[in-house]
């Protein structure tokens, strides 16, 4: 996917005017938030689990090289193969090579954000290999030729109306029909995709967690599509990244308890599957070959420095669901694979801060993302660090830079600073007394908000008055 | 290819300050992370398991013995208007049950089991989540959990364990198979307007038959 993050402001404006998108987002928001809250209320140990989850992630990263070597040895021991990829291009080549060696004509996929990150579908299509997404949401957006707009609900931006006409057009070559019911649409996708599953040569899945000690991948879905992808074709490729590693099955269990509840409000996702190696000698189903593609793509460098904690992320999507900015504009406006707060931290690392400089500013710093993060990533702090980096690199607007510079100079001169704030206060009081709703030059602010209510006096004069009183006593 | 492996590991080591570490050090350090297990809500594991199973959208019934399984399967078929076409998992367990000639038994090969009712044997039930655990074996391939339209899962009550951790302990002792499936309710999707719809890719119904231990 070609990054469009530099167009963030224009994309947001467009998203706010898109009535279908606003309807879809309005429906999604409360659903995710309420379901999560209910699931967490039902589990008094959630906070303790969250702390353990954070410790597990921190420990896994602290020994990442050791655990990666153990994982890789265990995969080979159970008859699988590990392919290391420093960047997206190398990961694409590994996968295309495996598929070409198999003379694969059809590849089926279950949802993988790493797959979006390396644009694997495009690479396979260029090699004349058909790729079909099997997660219903991913299938819908593949038909619509759109990228996902949410990391766990890729088609959350689509209304039923749009999906219905999309299916009519693609499956039946007809249009202008009445909107169909959800069961009808789901069943039609099931039938269409069942045929694809039967014909597929290679199945690609992601992995939610990799277990170092066993050399296993743990994969969760609610639909069961990943399980069909990994058991019907003769080759199974796990496309994943190095940060997904945890030491043991017990550690993965802690994260599974956090993941389902944080993502969809489920104590346990419907299908939680642990897969280790290829089919065994006497097995009557399962792939003959098992491959794991391990992508780095800058993660090993992120380990060193102030953004290390971002690698704790388990991709639950809770920070997106609780973000007022994401809820207003949806995922596409962010312009690349990972949207919302986690995306605003990750995207600059993958595509460059200069190409995504608005993302760290698309945040009200209300702190909800950090409060709901199942592994306690301090997202607002990381976003502030990116803002500072963006200022240091001279990426901010000249107006903003001179305003900050001016403020800095004022703040160093207490007398001038007091005079300026007192002046501003006086102007605000006048505007208020005149009941002036739309003062000139402030249109960008007042179009969506009221001016702040001026207090009776400035902080400094209150302070002085209080001090005088104390001295009198 | 190996070049990238070394390059990635080298970059990680550099990011970690190049301190010398090995698997044993990592394992020792990991011991400092105290386990956290959710407390059991119900004092009885079986009651908790069945409660969670229902919450996940599955149904269940209790039988007096395995010989009643064919009758229970017949009732399930007539209630849901299904033909008596079945795929049986674990043969050693199912073959000697009193199946009469009305049943059409299909081979568990993927091409034969579309639209059939699968009857499988669970390795364990997990009280914490209401999940059914099965492993892939030559007789009961993992596909039996996903290709059929409906699934009956037989679970002897003595196989209910408290948590995932207990299950892992047992599986590790015998060596991990290719697939361990933890199934919690029927297949579902909420990808269209957040409406939960059962039967996305896997079984539309999941019914558990509980046997005495």
What does this structure look like?
The complex is a heterodimer of chains A (473) and B (213). Chain A is an alpha/beta fold. Among the domains of chain A are: 8-158 and 201-300, Rossmann fold, CATH 3.40.50; 398-472, no CATH class. In chain A, 52% of the residues lie in helices and 10% in strands. Chain A has helices at residues 8-17, 19-41, 46-62, 64-77, 88-101, 113-117, 120-126, 136-143, 160-172, 182-199, 225-231, 249-263, 299-302, 318-321, 324-329, 340-351, 368-372, 379-392, 398-411, 414-433, 443-446, 459-472; strands at 81-85, 106-109, 130-133, 202-205, 209-211, 216-221, 235-241, 245-246, 271-275, 289-295. With 213 residues, chain B is an alpha/beta fold. Chain B has one domain (32-211): 3-Layer(aba) Sandwich (Rossmann fold), CATH 3.40.50.10420. Chain B has helices at residues 2-15, 23-30, 45-55, 69-79, 91-94, 164-174; strands at 59-62, 85-88, 104-106, 117-121, 124-126, 131-135, 150-156, 160-161, 179-183, 188-189, 197-198, 205-211. In chain B, the strands form 3 sheets. In chain B, strands 1-12-7-4-2-3 form a 6-stranded parallel β-sheet, sandwiched between helices. In chain B, strand 10 and strand 11 form a beta hairpin. Chain B is elongated. In chain B, 44% of the residues are buried. The model of chain B has no long low-confidence stretch (mean pLDDT 93). Chains A and B meet through helix 2, helix 3, helix 4, strand 1 and helix 8 of A and helix 1, helix 2, helix 6, strand 9 and strand 10 of B. Strand 9 (271-275) of chain A pairs antiparallel with strand 9 (179-183) of chain B, so a sheet runs across the interface. Chain A: Residues 304-334 form the 4Fe-4S ferredoxin-type domain.
In what order do the strands lie side by side in the largest sheet of chain B? Answer: 1-12-7-4-2-3
Count of distinct strands of chain A: 10
Biggest beta-sheet profile of chain A? 6 strands, parallel
Provide the structure class of chain B: alpha/beta
